[in-house]
Task: inverse folding
């Protein structure tokens, strides 16, 4: 096969598309912009370097292939000292699971373990009670006025789930949640210098807090995941300080990975439910459709719109030449609307049972997917079984981002 170079493209149009995407208006409905990107080809140059990938099958292929790597510490170093990739928050991320490549990644991931059925059942019992309390507060507010579902429910449930599971004191949950919203900028597509500085500060505060938590579990082990991770690391790492550092990095990433993403899933799911009365009635009368409704929410508008990888060697992707170390941005939310994968992709269809990449794919597949699904399914069941139908008061406002979706409010009232 001959080498094909990148197709010519209109750089100014591409810059304008991303400027629009990064606004609250663009985030309120990014999908027409994704359609414009996809029209430029399944793999097209990004205006700032690297490539954008919008086709479902190519995104899936890149995630599963060993030829494509996470941007790890040595890749970040090669980008140069003054770049965003060497900000303290970015260097910290390069030591966590999604900054590692095999064989180190395999070792760290094995020590992390996963959610088995018994753990999920135990957490489910706690979450039933938490959801009950959150919906009490929502109903109380709705008796007087409209209520912000995002603030009262979506922001509260994930931090309670992770907080209970990791044994973090409830008094600290609000601060942890704020810090994760600040920290995410370093993982965004194009963070500004100010955003990176906020992310660096949040990372430093999270390190101080979580290192302390690991230390307290080291001195007083219990029946909790942090104590189990300490045991797992002690079995493979003779240096105690290094073992504790590895446990801290795991706790850090679990907290970062679990809070904002799951809150966004819960709000998106509730938005899909309240924007069309017939959807509420359908789920209320057929609770068996709950898992499918959650999966279709993850396809229709996933919490993470972009996942990035770098080329381990010179290669060709869909006829486009890509050099070693160049980055590809997998636009998974755009890929979820690929008509070659899903028929009528812009239609939300809870009966679809869709394939999706919301939890990534291959060796970095999300460890927390069973927990995120559990939270969403429990919430959807309680909502539709217990409450009369809710309706949307006004469209939500979205944070001006690209990769990590975040609705800032979801105002609802009784229908
Ligand atoms: C709806 C909620 C969630 C979404 C959309 C989500 C999405 C993702 C994605 C896209 C990745 C892969 C990143 C990559 O390929 O580079 C990932 C990895 C990960 N997620 Fe999640 N996540 C969610 C919830 C959670 C929760 C609740 C936890 C923890 C309990 C968690 C823990 C992790 C961990 C530890 C990884 C790293 C896996 C690795 O690199 O080997 N996530 N998640």
Result:
């Amino acid at each position: 096969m001959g080498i094909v170079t990148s197709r010519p493209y209109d750089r100014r149009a591409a810059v304008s598309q991303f400027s629009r995407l990064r606004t609250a208006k663009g985030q309120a409905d990014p999908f027409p912009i994704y359609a414009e990107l996809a029209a430029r080809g399944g793999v097209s140059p990004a205006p700032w370097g690297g490539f954008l990938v919008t086709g479902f099958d190519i995104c899936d292929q890149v995630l599963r292939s060993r030829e494509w790597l996470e941007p790890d510490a040595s890749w970040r170093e090669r980008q140069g000292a003054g770049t965003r990739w060497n900000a303290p928050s970015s260097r910290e991320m390069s030591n966590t699971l999604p900054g590692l490549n095999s064989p180190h990644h395999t070792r760290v991931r094995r020590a992390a373990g996963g959610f088995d059925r018994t753990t999920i059942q135990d957490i489910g019992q706690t979450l039933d009670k938490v959801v009950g309390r959150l919906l009490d507060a929502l109903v109380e507010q709705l008796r007087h006025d409209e209520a912000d579902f995002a603030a009262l429910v979506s922001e509260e449930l994930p931090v309670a789930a992770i907080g209970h599971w990791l044994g973090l004191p409830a008094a600290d949950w609000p601060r942890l949640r704020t810090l994760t919203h600040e920290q995410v900028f370093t993982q965004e597509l194009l963070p500004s210098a100010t955003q990176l500085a906020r992310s660096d500060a949040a990372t430093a505060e999270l390190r101080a807090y979580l290192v302390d938590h690991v230390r307290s579990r080291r001195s007083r082990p219990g029946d909790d995941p942090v104590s189990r991770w300490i045991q797992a690391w002690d079995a493979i790492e003779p240096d105690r300080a290094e073992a504790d550092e590895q446990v801290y990095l795991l706790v850090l990433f679990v907290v970062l990975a679990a809070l904002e993403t799951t809150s966004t899933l819960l709000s998106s799911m509730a938005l899909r439910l309240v924007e069309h009365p017939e959807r509420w009635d359908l789920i209320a009368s057929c609770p068996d459709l709950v898992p499918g409704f959650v999966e279709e929410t993850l396809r229709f508008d996933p919490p993470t719109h972009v996942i990035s990888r770098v080329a381990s060697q010179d290669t060709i992707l869909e006829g486009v030449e890509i050099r070693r170390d160049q980055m590809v941005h997998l636009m998974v939310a755009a890929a979820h609307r690929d008509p070659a994968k899903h028929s009528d992709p812009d239609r939300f269809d809870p009966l679809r049972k869709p394939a999706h990449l919301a939890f990534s794919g291959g060796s970095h597949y999300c460890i927390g997917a069973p927990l995120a699904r559990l939270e969403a399914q429990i919430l959807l069941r309680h909502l539709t079984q217990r409450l009369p139908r809710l309706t949307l008061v006004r469209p939500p406002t979205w944070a001006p981002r690209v990769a990590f979706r975040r609705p800032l409010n979801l105002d609802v009232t009784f229908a």
Notes: The chain has 18 helices and ten strands. The two ends are 60 Å apart (CA to CA).
